[in-house]
């Protein structure tokens, strides 16, 4: 049975799940009825962050145009441009043993593609969640439902997975940004 978290909670991921080598991060959402003339295109991404709070290499930003990190420790399963259907809209696969030693945490984010041009924001998105599954068994380990606390934000850091000694922990972040993907990139030290 999955453990359900609320914003701000942290939990051991690998310590409470011994033998967890590969995890799947599943992200899902629905868009509210919207008549702005443009479809929604939400995109997930991962920033591999060092102890300085910034990415160490351009390859440490995994998204629809860079589907694999160095060492293939993080693999993005691909962009879902519509979000239609049930289940996860996008997935990211993490392999803990391959994670470079200079990576202290992984920030998992969701942005709205061309949000400013389309007049879109996370106030128009509902039922957003992130979940962590054991890749080997498909068992859901952790789930965090984001709720509807956002209005004008165009980017969200959904969660972080971070090192704690030799183990990995999960933090339910739910932090919104204005400025979309560009603002997130700047926050993690990337030039766009």
Describe what you observe in this structure.
It is a single chain. The protein contains 2 helices and 12 strands; from the N terminus they run ββββββββαββββα. It has 192 residues and is mainly beta. The longest helix is centred in the last third of the chain and has 8 residues, at 180-187. The protein has helices spanning 115-118, 180-187; strands spanning 3-5, 10-12, 22-31, 42-49, 61-62, 74-76, 90-95, 105-112, 125-134, 140-145, 155-164, 167-177. The protein starts with a strand and ends in a 5-residue tail after the last helix. The chain has a 6-stranded mixed beta sheet with strand order 1-10-9-3-7-6, with no helix packed on it. The protein has a 6-stranded antiparallel beta sheet with strand order 2-12-11-8-4-5. β9 (125-134) and β10 form a beta hairpin.
What is the multimeric organization of the chains shown? single chain
Instruction: Bin the helical content.
Output: under 10%
The portion of residues forming beta strands comes to: 35-45%
Biggest sheet, strands in spatial order? Answer: 1-10-9-3-7-6
Distinct helical segment count? 2
Low-confidence stretches: none
Q: What shape does the CA trace take?
A: globular
Secondary-structure element pattern, one letter each: EEEEEEEEHEEEEH
Q: Report Rg.
A: 16 Å
Main structural class: mainly beta
Mean pLDDT: 88
DSSP strand tally: 12
What summary fits the major beta sheet?
Answer: 6 strands, mixed
């Amino acid at each position: 049975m999955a453990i359900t978290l609320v914003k701000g909670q942290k939990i051991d991921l690998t310590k409470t799940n011994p033998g967890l080598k590969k995890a799947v991060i599943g992200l899902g959402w629905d868009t509210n009825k919207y008549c702005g003339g443009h479809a929604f295109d939400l995109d997930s991404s991962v920033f591999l962050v060092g102890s300085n709070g910034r990415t160490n290499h351009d390859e440490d930003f995994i998204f629809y145009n860079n589907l694999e990190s160095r060492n293939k420790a993080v693999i993005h399963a691909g962009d879902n441009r519509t979000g239609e259907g049930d289940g996860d809209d996008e997935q990211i696969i993490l392999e803990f043993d391959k994670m470079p030693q200079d990576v202290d945490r992984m920030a998992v984010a969701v942005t709205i593609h061309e949000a400013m041009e389309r007049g879109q924001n996370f106030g128009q998105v509902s039922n957003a969640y992130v979940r962590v599954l054991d890749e080997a068994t498909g068992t859901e380990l952790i789930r965090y439902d984001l709720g509807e606390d956002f209005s004008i934000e165009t980017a969200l850091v959904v969660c972080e997975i971070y090192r704690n000694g030799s183990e990995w922990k999960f933090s339910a972040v739910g932090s919104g940004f204005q400025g979309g993907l560009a603002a997130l990139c700047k926050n993690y030290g990337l030039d766009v």
